[in-house]
Structure formats: structure tokens, C-alpha cells
Design brief:
With about 425 residues, the chain is of the alpha/beta class. The chain has two domains: about 280 residues, 3-Layer(aba) Sandwich (UDP-N-acetylmuramoyl-L-alanine:D-glutamate ligase), CATH 3.40.1190.10; about 130 residues, Protein-Tyrosine Phosphatase, Chain A. The protein contains 15 helices and 17 strands. The strands form three sheets. It has an eight-stranded mixed sheet, with helices on both faces. The chain has a six-stranded mixed sheet with strand order 12-13-17-14-15-16, with helices on both faces. The protein starts with 5 loop residues before the first helix and ends with a helix.
Length: about 425
């Protein structure tokens, strides 16, 4: 074996491929064929979108588990531990399982160079193939058409939402991005779109391909009441469903999309209402409007683009607090920092900006400039790290205030352990 420790495997993978982001299916396709993994024996649900992917994966995963099915789930990036990326029946795979899979991939790839993400995706495919699954739920990393996850044909393809992110790779507008994400569709297989105002390109591509496409607001619907919600499609209706464990009204859109995907699964995977209710109550995902209660409430959210920030702003309005909202804010420099700050500025009483000492991390001065442009009259302090900014906000907070930490997976990863 090349390495026996997961840390060593991951450090090596980061240096193996010349480009960190290198979309394309040729490399993964070749290794997949060598490993004999092209046709899994389980159902595949692939989830793409700008925001809401991780939550939608969690809803599908937990509902299927509650129905008694053996599930796999693949998500990225991880928050605190690499093992979070691959789950079997809700449990993270072990270091030993990952190391063994990496060795099999390394032997199969021979001369083929693979990126860090491609190694992870192939490991998920490999581990799932050996796990005796009924269904695997796969989160697309970026885009869809050229993402490594797309090497497995989806039995049901899902698009959660379309916003402006990764524009240098996916295109400058929602139409271009929608077309890239629709690349996960397959001829004759159902596709689900949970964006309430989808780009036309998604429907056009599905029609050209011959993929039956189900739209939120046309083919399936939802409505919230005081302490429950209803969901219905052309063939099915569920009333008085429990509100999801994942907080925020925006999660109903993700849950509704997940239920439509589940309805379109192969007939061998029927799901009853009891399993839907149980799965909604159980679904959880760290760093998505994750609330840590206390005299000062802390909210951790990985929102890192204007669309995600707008959703976060609405969630904050839906759950008002008696005091002030203080924002701990750090982002990657190639993201729309100003757009995120602008989407939130009406909700924030003070900003605590920070630099991220990671590749592509923005400096504190960049964060400060963006916040100043978006909210010139709001108090701002700048700090070297997200952890320092978080502790500064804690010192300034009074009982009844809340702190929201946002901007990147890195921002949440560097602060969430301080709160738990």
C-alpha cells in the first residue's frame, strides 16, 4: 500500500494533479472502467444545484433509511473531517475503508492523473459498490455536465436551485449555468427541478434529451401551515407533515424537491408516509443554519454566494431575536464578497471581518472593503482569523444578541468547534 494513514493519502492527492479544478470526464471514465464500476447494482440519485444540495441529499437519505433501505450518501466538501464525505446508512466510513479504496484506485489508475475531488468521487463509487446498497445519493461538486459524479447515470436527477457561482467555469448567467447543471439528466429517466423560477435552458435540454422533467410549482407543490406543511404532486398528496428538523422555511423547498425525487424512484423502492415523516424529523447537516443555543445564540451557515446569502437573510428575518445580529464573515477571494455582504446588510448590526489563511482565501482587508461598500454605516472590525473574529463578537455580544458565522466552509470549520 502506498500509504497506511488517511492524512498521508490526502496530502499526496493534493499534489498529484497539476490543476486543483479540472472539469472533464475522461480521466474518471477510464479508471471507472478499469475498476468495473460503471453499472452499479443500486439506484442512483444525483443532486446538482447552486444552493440546497447538501440539505436535499440529507432529506432523501434519511427518508430512504426510515423506509428500511440501505443507503449511501456522497457530499462535498467536508466541514470538519474528510470522512464526512462518504456515509453508509448514515455512518461516516472509516479511515481504513478510505485507505483501502484509495489503494484500489491508485492501482487501477496507473499512469492517469486524478484530482483530489476525482479520488474522493471514485472512492465513493468503489465503497458503495461493495456495500450492498439499495440506493446512493450523490451530490455534484460543481456544475454537472463535466463533474466526476456525472460518470454514473442517475436513475433520478435533481436540480435544487440556480444562482450565480463558479461563473468562470459554468458561464456568466443563469441560463448557461442551468444548462451545465442539466448535464446530469439522462434520456428517458426522470429529472426534478426545485428552482421556483428556473432558467429556460433546463427545460429545453430535458426536452431535447427526452428526459421527463418535473418542476416545482407545476408538477409538485408545497404549502406551510402554522406547525406542519403539505406536499402534493399529480398522483400523491401528503398533509400535516412535520416541519423538517433543518431550520428555515427555505428548507421546505429542498424537502419538497427531495419528496418529488423519491416519488420518481424505481418501483422497487416504494416509500410510505410514515417513513417520510420520520426522515424529515431526522435529516440534519452541519453548517446549514445550524443553531447553537445560549444566552447569545450562535448560527453557523456556509452561505458563500449572493443567492445563499439572500436565503440566509430571509431565515434570519423568519427567526427574529430580541437583540442585535453580529456577523463573523470570511470568504474566498474568487467569490462575490460584496454581493454576499449586500444581501445581508439589512440584517446585520455589526460586522467582524476576517482573513482566511487557505488557498484562495481573501485577506481581512478585502473583506473590509466589500463590507464598507455594502454597508458603510455599520460598525466593522477586522481580524486575522475567523476564530479571532468569532471571539471578538462573543466579547461584544450581550444576552439576547445572536452571532451568525458565514461566508465559507472554512469559516464555519474554524469556528464551529469553538461553540460545541
Amino acid at each position: 500500500m502506498r500509504y497506511t494513514r488517511l492524512h498521508d493519502w490526502l496530502a499526496w492527492q493534493e499534489t498529484l494533479h497539476p490543476r486543483k479544478i479540472d472539469p472533464g470526464l475522461a480521466r474518471v471514465s477510464a479508471v471507472l472502467k478499469r475498476m468495473g464500476l460503471q453499472r452499479p447494482g443500486h439506484a442512483v440519485i444525483t443532486v446538482a444545484g447552486t444552493n440546497g444540495k447538501g440539505s436535499t441529499v440529507s432529506f432523501i437519505e434519511h427518508v430512504l433509511r426510515a423506509a428500511g433501505y440501505r443507503t449511501g450518501a456522497y457530499t462535498s466538501p467536508h466541514l470538519l473531517r474528510y470522512n464526512e464525505r462518504i456515509r453508509i446508512n448514515g455512518k461516516e466510513v472509516s479511515d481504513a475503508e478510505l485507505c483501502a479504496s484509495f489503494q484500489r484506485i491508485d492501482e487501477a489508475r496507473a499512469e492517469i492523473s486524478l484530482s483530489y475531488f476525482e479520488f474522493a468521487t471514485l472512492a465513493a463509487f468503489d465503497i458503495f459498490a461493495r456495500a450492498g446498497l439499495d440506493a446512493a445519493v450523490l451530490e455534484v461538486g460543481m456544475g454537472g455536465r463535466l463533474d466526476a459524479v456525472n460518470m454514473l447515470g442517475a436513475d433520478v436527477a435533481v436540480i435544487t436551485s440556480i444562482g450565480l457561482d463558479h461563473t468562470e467555469w459554468l458561464g456568466p448567467d443563469r441560463e448557461s449555468i442551468g444548462r451545465e447543471k442539466a448535464g446530469i439528466f439522462r434520456p428517458g429517466r426522470p429529472a426534478v427541478c426545485g428552482d421556483p423560477s428556473p432558467p429556460r435552458s433546463i427545460g429545453d435540454y430535458a426536452h431535447t434529451l427526452g428526459a421527463p422533467l418535473f418542476f416545482l410549482g407545476r408538477d409538485f407543490h408545497y404549502r406551510r401551515s402554522a406547525d406542519s406543511w403539505s406536499w402534493w404532486s399529480t398522483h400523491t398528496r401528503h398533509d400535516a407533515l412535520p416541519l423538517p428538523a433543518l431550520r428555515g422555511d427555505f428548507q421546505l423547498q429542498n424537502a419538497a424537491t427531495a419528496l418529488m425525487a423519491i416519488e420518481r424512484l424505481p418501483a422497487r423502492l416504494p416509500v410510505k408516509r410514515e417513513a417520510i415523516a420520520a426522515g424529515l424529523r431526522a435529516a440534519c447537516i452541519a453548517g446549514r443554519f445550524q443553531i447553537v443555543p445560549g444566552a447569545v445564540t450562535r448560527i453557523f451557515d456556509v452561505a458563500h454566494n449572493p443567492h445563499g446569502a439572500a436565503v440566509l437573510a430571509q431565515a434570519l428575518r423568519d427567526e427574529p431575536c430580541p437583540g442585535r445580529t453580529l456577523a463573523v464573515f470570511a470568504m474566498l477571494e474568487d467569490k462575490d464578497i460584496h454581493g454576499v455582504a449586500a444581501a445581508l446588510h439589512n440584517e446585520i448590526a455589526a460586522w467582524y471581518g476576517a482573513g482566511l489563511a487557505v488557498e484562495r482565501g481573501a485577506g481581512a482587508d478585502q473583506i473590509g472593503s466589500a463590507v464598507r461598500a455594502a454597508a458603510p454605516a455599520v460598525p466593522l472590525s477586522l481580524h486575522t482569523t475567523a476564530a479571532e473574529a468569532y471571539h471578538a463578537a462573543l466579547r461584544d455580544a450581550r444576552a439576547g444578541d445572536r452571532i451568525v458565522v458565514l461566508g465559507s466552509f472554512y469559516t464555519v470549520a474554524q469556528t464551529l468547534p469553538e461553540a460545541l
